[in-house]
Amino acid sequence: MKFCYPRFSAAAHRLAFLAITIAMISVVTPKASADLPRAVEGIPVPSLAPMLEKVTPAVVNISTEGHVELKSNPLMNDPFFRRFFNVPDAPRERKTQSLGSGVIVDAARGLVLTNNHVIANADQISVRLTDGRRFSAKLVGSDPETDVAVIQIKASGLIGLPLADSDRLRVGDFVVAIGNPFGLGQTVTSGIVSALARSGLGITGYEDLIQTDASINPGNSGGALVNLRGELVGINTAIYSQSGGNIGIGFAIPMNMAEQVMEQLVKYGEISRGYLGAEMQNLDPDLAAAFGLEGHNGAVLVNILADSPAEQAGLRAGDVVTAVNGRRVRDAADLRNHIGLMRVGDPVELNILRDSKPLSVRARVGSREPAAAGASGGVRNPRLAGVSVADLDEDSPAFGRINGVVVTRVASGTPAFKAGLRAGDIILSVNREEVLDVQSFVAMVGRNKGQLLLGVMRGNRTAMMVIK
What we know:
This protein folds into four domains: 53-70 and 91-152, Thrombin, subunit H; 166-264, Trypsin-like serine proteases (Thrombin, subunit H); 278-364, Roll (Pdz3 Domain), CATH 2.30.42.10; 372-467, PDZ domain (Pdz3 Domain), CATH 2.30.42.10. The strands form five sheets. The protein has a seven-stranded antiparallel beta sheet. Helix content is 18%, strand content 34%. By secondary structure, it is an alpha+beta fold. The chain has helices at residues 10-28, 49-55, 79-84, 116-119, 255-268, 285-290, 309-312, 332-340, 415-419, 438-447; strands spanning 39-40, 43-44, 59-69, 93-106, 111-114, 122-128, 134-136, 138-143, 148-152, 174-179, 187-198, 209-212, 224-227, 232-239, 250-254, 278-282, 299-304, 320-324, 327-328, 347-354, 357-364, 372-373, 387-391, 405-410, 426-430, 433-434, 452-458, 461-467. It is globular. The chain contains ten helices and 28 strands.
């Protein structure tokens, strides 16, 4: 006996398989409800949704339009030169656009905290809320050194985020990053605090960054980093990536630092950085042992500058600063941050260890204006005509590590310019004699009437330069 089976096409076989699969799922799987269960067998299902419903309205999208001037050869600005060589007109500026994020920190006044690089060179700043409303924003103030900016919008019904004490963060704490990555619109990612007090990265002038593995991408800049209570712990500012996308290493400005900068920008519209006038270095384990100290948190003062606030307060070389206004000092960079974020004239209390004994010293933060000298300031050598120099200040990465003076200006066409000297160079020596400061530099070049052999540092490289 032969059995005859009906013949089906390949498409019919696929439809039959799909129908059987759906039937099996309907038998095995119970009917799903519209909402996910809030608890399973009495145990609550964890979710960030309740917290985010309160937090996300405070995070805004920012878009800007602006322009930047294009650099060109000075000859191109000469109309005669352009006509003579028939050089066509070229644009002297180009338009710029940027996308980023911001956080409403004061709903009553409409204050929004963001990054300086989000609004840099902006002629127009537009803010869009989660409810779809869009407003033009006014720049209150910005600080490139910390990459913090404050803008303001006039709107009703705003929601602001409460500010957290970022000093209480610990490695391993859960955090959520909220922003506008790649201009997609508001996006939420979660992770943990991977590290704290990151510095020396070259991202900003003053660094005490939170590192997190919560996904941060271009467009997240200026957005919120919040804890699980919905409090603002940091402002997302940068990523570490060779591809430009997230690889799990993002950085945020801690809220305590951002808040200090914000208060000055709101009150004064600018930042007036504090100055102590002391060269410092980290208290490493070897130094701690030499000083007879058990821990290695703090900054060692290695030189006190003359007529500085540090000298006037009675600080001495060898003092170990352990706290500023009651806040612990981790290392030299931390001490620099503490002082640099204070305003000129502010009182400061320093807890120090002197000969292993604790002391409290009161000082008043001074101005950071460096002493400067140029050709008209005492330099009596025609080979340095058009050259201005200044003492290294605490903002310089070389401060406290080397002696020398920084070149602040070199006039074009001068002997120094032709020899290759440029603004930003650090002069270490003159005719193999070490330069300590502006005063010693002026004396050296004044008594040398012949050619000058300069030891110059540019970036991380050192070279000798002859000025004839």
